TrEMBL record:
Source organism: Spongiibacter pelagi
Keyword set includes Amino-acid biosynthesis: yes
Protein name: Pyrroline-5-carboxylate reductase
Residues the entry annotates as binding NADP(+): 9-14, 70-73
NCBIfam families: proC (TIGR00112)
Enzyme Commission number(s): 1.5.1.2
Residues annotated to bind NADPH: 57
Catalysed reactions, semicolon-separated: L-proline + NAD(+) = (S)-1-pyrroline-5-carboxylate + NADH + 2 H(+); L-proline + NADP(+) = (S)-1-pyrroline-5-carboxylate + NADPH + 2 H(+)
Length: 274
């Protein structure tokens, strides 16, 4: 795996995170290629290590075993069409991290019969603390599955889904998910301030509470519901707050919000396919 030549088309935030994670996990920088028209993106990438960074997407395809497509969904079709001839010749494993682009669309834009792993990471990948779900089309071999896992595991945990449609649920849950926790943090901070704490105090207490709760939920051998019950003393303060959340329909609201995100993910796939 250390000899694998890995390329990135599009060298923005997500690509930089994955490249940073790969180098931190021991992948030699000289085995990494990246292309991006932006001089600013390229200079950020070269600061991560001595990777081969340039502006020619086709040069990357012609060189690597695995290419990560890390451009915005809206430009994916143009970029894929531009590299299709080279991809047909070189037949690399193509990993797409773009939201809403189906493996069928990308395969068609690349000229067909391409091994494609479509995945949905999330922004905590920036801290190598991401959660990624992966889906492989039928052209992907078991060795290529391992290569995709190797690359995405550099930025956090990953798991496979067997149906591509499940990626819409993943997008709604973990792709967009960090924003839901940030929203709750914003609301808790505002409430702390309204109750008389300074903005600094409220922010500090909110953020450490979020971090502590997340670590407990991940590291404990009991589930979130049990951890919640353990904070909730009979007739105490937590019970009052949880009761108000439940009466306000928090669970139903969360379900409606995530279902809305899933439907939007399905719509995006149709819009981007046209
Ligand atoms: N931000 C998020 O929460 C998540 C983003 N993604 C996906 O990751 C992908 C990349 O997103 P970011 O890194 O946040 O975007 P970004 O804007 O930071 O990076 C995109 C890069 O593509 C480059 N680019 C533009 N045209 C190009 C071309 N013709 N050839 C090569 N490179 C080109 C841009 O110069 C830029 O550096 C997107 O498809 C997005 O859907 C996936 C999961 C989560
Ligand atoms: O909001 C979005 O559409 C993208 C997909 C997952 C996170 N950001």
């Amino acid at each position: 795996m250390l000899d694998l030549k890995i390329g990135f088309i599009g060298g923005g935030n997500m690509a930089a995170s994955i490249i940073g994670g790969l180098i931190a996990s021991g992948v030699p920088a000289e085995n990494i290629w990246a292309s991006d028209p932006s001089t600013e993106s390229l200079s950020k990438l070269t600061k991560l290590g001595a990777i081969h960074a340039g502006k020619d997407n086709n040069a990357v395809i012609n060189t690597v075993d695995v290419v990560v497509m890390a451009v915005k969904p809206q430009v994916m079709k143009t970029v894929a069409n531009d590299i299709a001839a080279a991809a047909q010749k070189a037949k690399p494993l193509v990993i797409s991290i773009a939201a809403g682009i189906t493996s069928d669309s990308l395969n068609n834009w690349l000229g067909g019969k391409i091994a494609i792993v479509r995945c949905m990471p999330n922004t905590p990948a920036l801290l190598q603390c991401g959660a990624t779900a992966l889906y492989a089309n039928t052209s992907v071999s078991s060795i290529q599955r391992q290569q995709a896992e190797h690359i995405l595991s550099a930025v956090g945990i990953n798991l496979w889904v067997e149906s591509e449609a499940q990626l819409d649920a993943v997008t709604a849950l973990s792709g967009s998910g960090p924003a839901y926790f940030f929203l709750l943090m914003e609301a808790m901070q505002a409430s702390g301030e309204a109750m008389g704490l300074s903005p600094e105090q409220s922010q500090k207490l909110t953020l450490q509470t979020a971090l502590g709760a997340a670590r407990m939920a991940v590291e404990s051998d009991v589930d979130a519901a049990e951890l919640r019950r353990r904070v909730t003393s009979p007739n105490g303060t937590t019970e009052r707050a949880i009761g108000i959340f439940e009466q306000g329909g928090l669970r139903e609201l969360v379900d409606r919000a995530l279902t809305g995100a899933k439907i939007r993910s399905e719509e995006l796939a149709q819009e981007l396919d046209s």
